[in-house]
Amino acid sequence: MDNTAERERAAKVAALKSMASVLGQIGWHRRFNELTDQQAAALAEAAVAGFQKSMWESAPEVPF
Fold first, then answer.
1. Of 29, 31, 36, 54, most Cβ neighbours within 10 A?
2. Helix, strand or coil for residue 25?
3. Predicted pLDDT at 1
4. How far, rounded to the nearest angstrom, does the alpha carbon of residue 55 sit from its chain's CA centroid?
5. For residues 20 and 26, what is the distance between their CA atoms, to the nearest angstrom?
6. Is the predicted pLDDT of residue 61 greater than 90, yes or no?
7. Which of 14, 22, 52 is nearest to 40 (CA)?
8. What residues have CB less than 8 Å from 21, skipping those under 6 apart?
9. pLDDT value of position 62
10. What ranges in the chain are assigned the alpha helix state H?
11. Is the Cα dihedral 7, 13, 19, 24 positive or negative?
12. Phi, psi (5° rounding) for residue 58?
């Protein structure tokens, strides 16, 4: 049986780690309202990509 809540929690952590990588490049001293459009988009893309990758990798195997 699949524990979706645990998979989603792990995916959120993966998203945060992915975002942290982008924030490291941007600079931790920057406030969100100071980000350029490109920086904000990169941060959003990193969050979504990290979440989706984690969910994909932790998906239960289909038995057929």
1. 54
2. helix
3. 45
4. 10
5. 10
6. no
7. 22
8. 46
9. 74
10. 4-26, 37-57
11. negative
12. -100, 5
At 2 the pLDDT is 57
CB 39 within 8 A of CB 3: no
pLDDT score, position 59:
87
DSSP 8-state assignment for residue 47: H
- Which tens digit of pLDDT belongs to each residue from 17-48? 999 999 999 999 999 999 999 999 999 999 99
Cα 8 from chain centre: 11
Tokens of 30: 């920057």
Single-letter code of the amino acid located at 63: P
The chain-wide mean pLDDT, for the chain, equals: 91
The residue assigned the tokens 């969910």 is 55
**CA-to-CA separations, 15 to 7, 11, 21, 32, in angstroms, rounded:** 12, 6, 10, 17
